[in-house]
Amino acid sequence: MLRPFALHRPATVAEASEILAQEGRDAALYAGGTELLVILKEGLLRVKSLVDVKRLPGLADIRADDGHLLIGATATHRTVEHAPEVHARCPLIARVARHVANVRVRSVGTVGGNLAFADPHSDLATVFLLFDAKVRLSARAGERELALGDFVVGPYETSRRDEEILTSVRLLPWPAGTAGAYVKYGLHERPTLGVAVALTVAGGAVRGARIAVGCVGPRPQRLAGAEGRLGGWSLADVERRAEEVGAEAAAAVDAVDDLHGSAEYKRDMTRVFVRRALLVAAGRAAGRESHERHPHTVVV
Amino acid sequence: MSVIPIRSSSSVRCTVNGRPVALEVRPEALLLDVLRDRLELKGARRSCDMQVCGACTVLVDGAPVSACTYLAVEVDGREVTTVEGLADGDRLHPLQEAFIDHGAVQCGFCTAGMLLTAKALLAEDPSPTSERVAEYLRGSLCRCTGYRKILDAILACATPKVAAG
């Protein structure tokens, strides 16, 4: 059962921002409701009104934007999974969208809602870090753009101001010659660990590496030290020495204890899964698809 | 100019299992309660109440949703399908026949959700692989059958892929 609330259906972003400014913490932004309605039912959040952003014009658009891929905040996971623009520019994201939560959540859950809820056990924020994601926030006073790493502050906490609306996320597609992979592990509904990696290879050597680890700590993070270690390696080096990068990632990752396991366990799992994800990506860079499978693991 | 929020009831017009329905619903009314308590459609069931189990699955414009965590006001202008809408009179839907033939029903609690999820999958991908069916059913929990028979029943309704060459 849900406690009574008023449902606002503003027609413009300015109007939505005005309602948020007036009602402050008594109002909650509502899109798919897959996270919000659950915490309302559980009594973890109490509000007097919901501000439905699904009718705001253009907010569900997915399009190319000056060399970037722009995903509107109210685009559902299912839309992202099928969108030709996503397949063309950031195909890994389309594949990840197909594995978010379950099909019912994907039907209604939105990209913006997922990012703004900032559940640490989420796939999107981790993967988006590999695409230098920037979120756009709009309010009556104007617009600002923040790097995703500055937007997600901690568990269920973002730097969005009360009157702001997350309107889109902008992603920079990888350079040619880049192969990526996302590997997640979990026994519960939400992943226990998610590792996203990408290798840009030119002339047989790694020219750029990206590694992001999510779900194990308060927020997903890029691991610059582990990334740097891969510079100049051949694909054969990557396959032989992936373990070293895994160990470096495990040492650097900010892991915490929670119901999914201890910090020590997560650190060790980070070591193993960074290695595995690198092997998948290195295989792809060489034109091979790994068919190695592990229990409770999704390889995207 | 600000739009007046919905504070009490608003009218929702939709079709449920092909029939037009007009209802007054409060903003906080959940689709599951409206279906079960007002329309007397008891096929969708409340179980986990947090979108994890799939027992309350219904289709909205063909897409599976968890009716336990979906506002009834959202179905305005849309088409809702519950398990009661699958059979054509006394003639069961092919998926229902296949579930019976394969022994894919034991206690039956998850069956409505399984059938509707399978219907959505086959509409999207008429010839899914076994791996794809299992992937699509993630979050549709059955505590009796061990899933094998459910998978077999769904695969029996798939359109065979025409061999290449």
Describe what this molecule looks like in 3D.
The complex is a heterodimer of chains A (300) and B (165). Chain A has helices at residues 13-23, 36-42, 77-82, 84-89, 91-97, 103-108, 111-117, 124-128, 148-151, 224-229, 235-252, 263-285, and strands at residues 6-8, 27-30, 49-52, 62-65, 68-72, 134-139, 142-147, 152-154, 157-158, 165-171, 178-185, 193-202, 205-214, 221-222, 297-299. Chain A is globular. Chain A has a 5-stranded antiparallel beta sheet. Chain A has a 5-stranded antiparallel beta sheet with strand order 14-13-12-11-15. Chain A has a 3-stranded parallel beta sheet with strand order 1-3-2, with helices on one face. Chain A is built from 12 helices and 15 strands. Helices cover 35% and strands 26% of the residues of chain A. Chain A is α+β, with helices and mostly antiparallel strands and 300 residues long. Chain B has 2 domains: 11-85, Roll (Ubiquitin-like (UB roll)); 94-156, DNA polymerase, domain 1 (Orthogonal Bundle), CATH 1.10.150.120. A 5-stranded mixed beta sheet of chain B has the order 2-1-5-3-4, with helices on one face. Chain B has 165 residues and is α+β, with helices and mostly antiparallel strands. Chain B is elongated and about 55 Å long. Helices cover 28% and strands 15% of the residues of chain B. The chains are: A alpha+beta (300), B alpha+beta (165). The A-B interface holds A 1-11, 15, 18-19, 33-34, 37-38, 41-42, 49-50, 78, 98-99, 101-105, 107-108, 189 and B 2-3, 5-7, 26-28, 30, 49-52, 54, 57, 60, 63-66, 69-71, 73, 117, 120-121, 135-136, 138-140.
